[in-house]
Amino acid sequence: MIARTVSDLVVQLQLLTRSIEQQATAQLETQDTTLRTVSVLLCAAAGEKTQKELAELACLDKSTMVNTLDALERAGLAERRVLAEDRRVRIVEVTDRGHAIVSSTAGALDDLYSSLLERLPEEDREPFLRSLSRLTQAPSPQPADAVAG
Prior knowledge:
Radius of gyration: 18 Å
Helix content: 55-70%
Number of helices: 7
Largest sheet: 3 strands, antiparallel
Order of helices and strands: HHEHHEEHHH
Structural class: mainly alpha
Distance between the termini: 39 Å
Shape: globular
C-alpha cells in the first residue's frame, strides 16, 4: 500500500519503527542491553552533550531521559558531571564500560541496518535514505493559529 494520506503515512512509519525496534531488541538481548541504552550511549559518545541535548537526539522526553541516565550511571556506563560554566547544566560522559557496550553492539546493529535496506532494490536505497533524512530534518510546520497570532 502506498501512503496516500497522513494517516496512511503515520501507520506505515509506525509499522516500520516497530519492526526495527523488535529486531534490534532481539539482537541486543543476546548482549544484555537495550536499544535505548545503546542509542543514548551513542549520542553521548559523539561529543559533550547536555541531558537536554541527549533527550532531543535520542527522541526521549525529559523524565525518560533522567530515568535512563540514572540506570546508565548505576550500571557504570555513563556519568553526569556539572558544566563548569553553568553549574545548573549536566554533561553526560560515557565511561570505558559504556564505550565497550557501544563497540560490542556495533556489528549487530550494522547487520540489522544492512538487512533492513536489503528489503529495497539496490537502486532505491540511497534515494530512500536521502528522502528520509530530508523529511526528518525539515522544520515542523507551524499550526495555523500560531502563524496568525
